[in-house]
Predict the structure of M15 family metallopeptidase.
Amino acid sequence: MSHVPVHLLNADHLDAVPAHALNARRNDHNRALRHAQYLIRRKQDGRYLGLIGRWNGMLQFRAWQDRSCSVEQLDPLLAMLGLRRRDALHGRRPIRLAQLPNWQLALPGVGNVLLDWLDRLNAMGIDALAYSESTGLPWQFEPPILRYAGRDRFQRPLWLIDSAAKSWARMRRAAAADDVTLDAISGFRGYAYQYGIFQRKLARGLSIEQILKVNAAPGFSEHHTGRALDIGFPGEPSAEESFEHTPAYAWLDQHANEFGFHLSYPRNNPHGISFEPWHWCWHAALPM
C-alpha cells in the first residue's frame, strides 16, 4: 500500500475513502491525514471512524477521535484492501495490519445486504416488488470499487466506476474544446445516502407517497450504480428543468451518446419520473 490510492472501496457498512480526496479544515486533522492512505467511513451517517496508513514505518489502523467500529464491519473492508488485523480491536489503541495473501483477497457479497435493505424498505411502508413493477425501475446494485473522478461543483470528491469516470473525463474535455463547460453536480450515491433523504423528509412530516413523487426509493436510484451523473452549467441552479435551455444541455443532446452517456428520464418516460434534463447515465457499448 505504498501507492497513492484512487479508488473508493465500498463494503456493506463501511467504505474506505482515499485520504488525498479529502480537505481537512483543522490543523490536527491535516497532520493525521499526512500519514493516512484511507479514511474509514460509516455509510449510514457518513462519519469517519478511523485511518489506515503508515506511522513509524508500520502499517496501522487508528481510530478517528473517540469513535469506534466493530470487528464484523471492519474485517470485510480490510479484506477488500488486501489487509488483515495483526492485533485485537480494542478502543483507541493503534492496530497493526498485515498484507493478505492474494488468494484471500475478497469482495463483498450482495445477498445479505439486499435482504437487509428490503427489510428497511418494508419498515418504511415500501413494498420493493410492487414499487419495481409499478415504476419499471430495477433494483440497482452498488459497485464494490469506485474511481476518483475529480470534484463536483461543491468541491466534494466525485466517485464513478472506472469506465464511467474515464468517459466523463473525455466528454468534459470534448465539451471544453467546444467552449462548453460541464459541471458535475453529483455522481455515486449509496443506499444509505438515499435512505437518509427519506428519513429526514419523514421527520419533517412528509408521507412516503409524497417523497416517492420526487425521490426514487433506496435501492432503485441509478446513482447507486456509479454510472449516473447529475450535470450542470455554471450560473445555473442544480437539478432544475431550466438546465434544458443551457449550452451544456444542447451539447449533451448532440454528443453525450458518443461517450456512452444517455438521458435517463426524458419527457413522458415509462417510469413516471418527471423530466430530468440534468440526469445522464453511462452504459457500456452494446455489441453490434
Q: What stands out?
A: The CA atoms of residues 268 and 274 lie 8 Å apart. The longest helix spans residues 162-177. DSSP finds eight helices and 13 strands in the chain.
